[in-house]
Amino acid sequence: MIHIVKRGETLAGISLDYRTPMETIIATNRLVNPNLLFVGQKIEIPGIPEPSSIPFQIFVSLGSRRLTLMKNGQVVKVYPIAIGQMLKSTPVGEFVIVNRAPNPGGPFGAMWLSLSKIHYGIHGTNNPSSIGKAVSKGCIRMFNQDVLELSSQVPNGTKVYIRPN
């Protein structure tokens, strides 16, 4: 997939966000000087499909605490979610699913879907009563059966749009 460099980003940060070794990104892009990135620069991230090739998209509304799965522009399903607390808010923006881990353990429930922002993801929960509330450390929590259903449909590379409302 192609990542467009934003203000303040570094190659080390991009590497962490996509869980791709910096050396791999440098080699793939034939970067002469990896310390000289510029806003708008296109960086190929190997191993992640181009989101435009995937029929699915995920839209997250923080205000309504809902995650909407779309396929080819049509609503497939709407799920209730939990979001980040006031001081540990869920990031707003456009991300992609970069990898997944079934049964990650602890508070992450039955599935973890990593977003292209380090330390953030969509995951299940060991506390189903938290769904519908602003209680997480910034991640998007779902009922375990819901995150398993979602993860069985969407591949890595699926675009995730997180909006305030």
Automatic annotation (TrEMBL):
The record places domain LysM at 1-45
L,D-TPase catalytic domain ranges (all copies): 56-163
Q: Which family does it belong to?
A: Belongs to the YkuD family.
- Keyword entries, A-Z: Cell shape, Cell wall biogenesis/degradation, Glycosyltransferase, Hydrolase, Peptidoglycan synthesis, Transferase
| Organism in which the protein naturally occurs | Metabacillus herbersteinensis
Q: In which pathway does it act?
A: Cell wall biogenesis; peptidoglycan biosynthesis
* Residues the record marks as active site: H123 (proton donor/acceptor), C139 (nucleophile)
Recorded protein name is L,D-transpeptidase family protein
